[in-house]
What does this fold into?
Amino acid sequence: MTWKTRSLRLLPAALLALTAFTLSAAPPAPASSSATAPAANAHPQVELKTSMGDIVIELFPDKSPKTVANFLQYVKDGFYDGTVFHRVIPGYLIQGGLYTRELRPKRTLPPIPDEANNGLSNLRGTVAAARGPDPDSATAQFFVNVVDNPRLDYVGNQSGMTWGYAVFGKVVKGMDVVDKIDNLPTGPQGPFIGDVPRPLVVIESAKLIGEAAKPVAEPVSPVTGQVPASAPAAKKKPGTKH
It folds into this structure.
């Protein structure tokens, strides 16, 4: 099977600007009081505890509502606990969220619509839903962009090749862990002809942390979707049934 025939099977993410909240009418705090209310977290965050360290992902339900809801459902169900990052392409992406330590796929929920046309770009650190050739085929798998990958962005609705991959979040802590995973040696293992990291990186748990406030309106990052100064040469689009 060639790379051209492979397809990302990631599931159902991008950072948003913090805007000022308009508080309901209330008397101002006494001048003598120096206490101020803590700023609310504008978006839900999920902590992935992995065998190589912790990764915290901030999610953006205002830009990718269906993808975020899908991802959070898997998190709340404990689906990701014990799954692995089974695919690593150095200088490109790391992918996981479906296979067990034995590299057996778990049963997923129904696929969701592709939300790649949300204005968010596959820049370094962003998290996107993996899918097959059909744009509306994402389930549990996701990937983290190790570099800026604008070639994975939405271009048009002509075909699965132009539809792109929906960004629904961004790593806000643990990018060093992502880089460590990206630097692991890879090779064939189980049903896969390559790209399986050695050792396998296990997602020991995935937990929602904190409470999300109402989403704000504008993204902070990815900010422009600009093409990196030197994109990886001749990288194949994510494509494989793993």
